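Review form for a predicted model. The reviewer records the input and the model, then writes brief findings.
Reviewer: anonymous (R2)
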Amino acid sequence: MRYPVIFSVMVMAGFVIGCSKSNSLKGGSGGGTGTSGSFAFAGYEYEGSMTELSREWEKPILVHFNADSTVTDYCFFMFNGNTFDPDSLSGKILQVGTASGGGPSVTVYFKDIADTQVYDFSPDLSGLSGGSNGLAGNQFYFPGLTKITKTAAALGTSFWTCDTSMEPNSTQGSPWYPDINGTQFNSNSFCNYSRNGGPAEIGLVPNQTLVSIEYFQHGSRVYFYGYNETISTGIPYFGIISNDGNTIYADTRDFIKGRVPIYGQTKDYYGEAGNPPVMHKRTTN
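Model under review:
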């Protein structure tokens, strides 16, 4: 997924690892019924957070197991000093075996980052752990993802806010993650934004009454913009909707224009250092 290009006056929308006994996929041996693409976990998706080298926080990730023995990891990756930043990686299952906990274990090779990873399922396939055997500039791991058990409802007509600072300092009472606090997802696939009790009205398009920017939802994944009204700029975000549909775990790559917490900050103006943005669904706006 690539975001539409936003200009100042125009919006253009085109927009852990357990030991295992493994078998090669060659000849149809391995998992499921013994043929490629027929594994018990084919079509399953898992969501949670992953750890990547030198990032400000754990990043939301969704892992999808395809029916053709490939795996797709969806995340705002930032590899090798931010020189490689895909929003998904596709890997090929090389081996399937049994993890130390008794569930299936798969070895996956990701060509784009030249990394071989091991993913271990819980025996009932409800959980997933694994990733790289290390943490170099092109590696990541996740200690425990949970299976997505139902299709996420459409975000249209839902309103989302973030937590408010409870710190006993000048930030107390201020909303955290202000780029995405007060986001209204509409059924026309556009977002509007509430600021200081009212709608944001400095539009990005000439004669635009309200700030309105397109978003894209793919199941439990959502690609959208936050809005920094102090500089009239859209900030690209990626989010994963929780199983119960009431929480979005979000991420952005923009630590310059985006109003997000960073390590070393002395006050929690935009959120707690090291904690990723989190949005909560509200019944009314």
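Findings: Residues 66 and 259 are 36 Å apart (CA to CA).
Further findings: The chain has a mean pLDDT of 87.
Recommendation: see findings above.
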